């Protein structure tokens, strides 16, 4: 089963992403904190992490969190956030997330994008 992680502290959104993944035969493991995510990656290994740029630890500088994830071997970082926070979206792209999407675009295409992201 293809698997990835979601760093998100929004329970409604987390549930939606996990439900979509389940319907596609994929598995998303949610983490509400960076420490929880890093601990899980160290135990299980993983190459794909989806990051909610609204997660509390991200703040205005996603590169701090992204650099920590890269340091534990994450090779695929996907980020999404509010379409009005263009500086934050650009900062995530600059730090190495690809793709970086507005939440609305991600929501509209989640069913198509998840299999690609977790491949």
Shape: globular
Count, helices: 5
- Going across the biggest sheet, name each strand in turn: 2-1-3-4-5
Profile the largest sheet.
5 strands, parallel
Can you tell me about this structure?
Helices cover 50% and strands 20% of the residues. Helix 3 packs parallel to helix 4. The model has no long low-confidence stretch (mean pLDDT 92).
What does the secondary structure layout of this molecule look like, with pairings?
Blueprint lengths: L2 E5 L3 H13 L3 E5 L2 H11 L3 E5 L9 H10 L4 E6 L4 H10 L4 E3 H16 L1
Parallel strand pairs: 1-2, 1-3, 3-4, 4-5
Helix pairs in contact: 3-4
What's the quick description here?
The chain is an alpha/beta fold and 119 residues long.
Defining key terms:
5 helices, globular, alpha/beta, 119 residues, 5 strands
């Amino acid at each position: 089963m293809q698997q990835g992680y979601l760093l998100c502290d929004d329970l409604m959104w987390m549930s939606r992403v996990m439900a979509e993944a389940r319907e596609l035969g994929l598995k998303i493991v949610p983490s509400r904190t960076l420490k929880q995510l890093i601990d899980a990656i160290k135990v299980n290994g993983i190459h794909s992490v989806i990051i909610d740029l609204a997660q509390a630890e991200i703040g205005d500088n996603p590169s701090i969190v992204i650099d920590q994830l890269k340091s534990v071997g994450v090779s695929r970082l996907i980020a999404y956030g509010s379409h009005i926070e263009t500086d934050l979206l650009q900062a995530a792209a600059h730090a190495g997330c690809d793709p970086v999407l507005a939440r609305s675009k991600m929501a509209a295409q989640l069913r198509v994008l998840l299999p690609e992201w977790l491949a």
